[in-house]
Specification:
Number of domains: 2
Low-confidence stretches: 16-24
Distance between the termini: 114 Å
Number of strands: 12
Structural class: alpha/beta
CATH architecture of the largest domain: 3-Layer(aba) Sandwich
Shape: elongated
Helix content: 25-40%
Number of helices: 5
Largest sheet: 9 strands, mixed
CATH topology of the largest domain: Rossmann fold
Order of helices and strands: HEHHEEEEEEHEEEHEE
Radius of gyration: 30 Å
Strand order of the largest sheet: 6-5-4-7-8-9-10-11-12
Strand content: 25-35%
CATH superfamily of the largest domain: Cell division protein FtsQ/DivIB
């Protein structure tokens, strides 16, 4: 009796198993489309496409998405990525590119939140300003740098180099060779003061300026290049 019941159950389940296998094979077809979303300035989209092509040899359902995503994130300039399947045979890849804002010394790069960016080829970021600092809190340093950039950018003063010493004193090199000494305190007030004076007078004398010293309570001092002020 038990043998007969077992046979009946097996005969009943066999068609379901066959249907399941056939259905799985139908769903597990080859991936024929990959959509990559993201804005790329430094990342090579072609490299990402090639990497995905190399790793989508399995079927739509059997593809190991976490492993593929791990390989994508390991590529230069990729801050984060996510992958999802879209029926019938499409992969959708969302990529967030790193945003480099400054060079950190001679070898490192910092992104917009002060994290290090580990990339092999840095030629594409040689135009970015370089930060030299004797303190290691890159997140705080990048916040102050971005604040300085926001205040100087609108008046056309390009930052080339930033230095911060152990005492927290800031010195800038702008427009190739002008030094701006900020000191430690009241950076916003000092830069706002510079904004006004720059627009009113100093911008027309840009090529003659050697140093702008803002370490004064209510003013600034300008050191001119020798025999150049008109």
């Amino acid at each position: 009796m038990k043998i007969k019941q077992t046979i009946i159950i097996f005969v009943f389940l066999l068609p379901l198993m066959l249907i399941g296998i056939i259905t799985f094979d139908n769903f597990n077809q080859s991936i024929d489309r990959v959509i990559i979303n993201g804005e790329f300035n430094y990342l090579s989209e072609r490299d990402v496409i090639d990497l995905i092509d190399e790793n989508v040899q399995t079927g739509f359902l059997t593809l190991d998405l976490p492993e593929l995503n791990r390989k994508i994130v390991e590529q230069d300039w990729i801050r984060s990525s996510s992958i999802r399947r879209s029926w019938p045979a499409t992969l959708i890849v969302n990529i967030e590119e790193e945003i480099p804002v400054a060079r950190w010394g001679e070898q490192q790069l910092l992104n917009n939140v002060g994290d290090y960016i580990d990339v092999i080829n840095k030629d594409s970021v040689s135009h970015l300003p370089v930060i030299f600092s004797q303190v290691g809190d890159t997140k705080e340093i990048i916040k102050i740098y971005q604040l300085i950039s926001e205040l100087l950018g609108p008046i056309g003063v390009r930052i080339d180099e930033v230095e911060s010493d152990n005492a927290g004193s800031w010195t800038l090199t702008v427009l190739s060779d002008i030094k701006i000494i900020l000191g430690r305190d009241q950076l916003v007030e000092k830069l706002q003061r510079l904004q006004s004076v720059w627009l009113a007078e100093l911008s027309s004398q840009e090529k003659n300026i050697n140093v702008i010293d803002l370490r004064y309570p209510n003013g600034l001092a300008v050191k001119w290049k020798q025999n150049t002020r008109s």
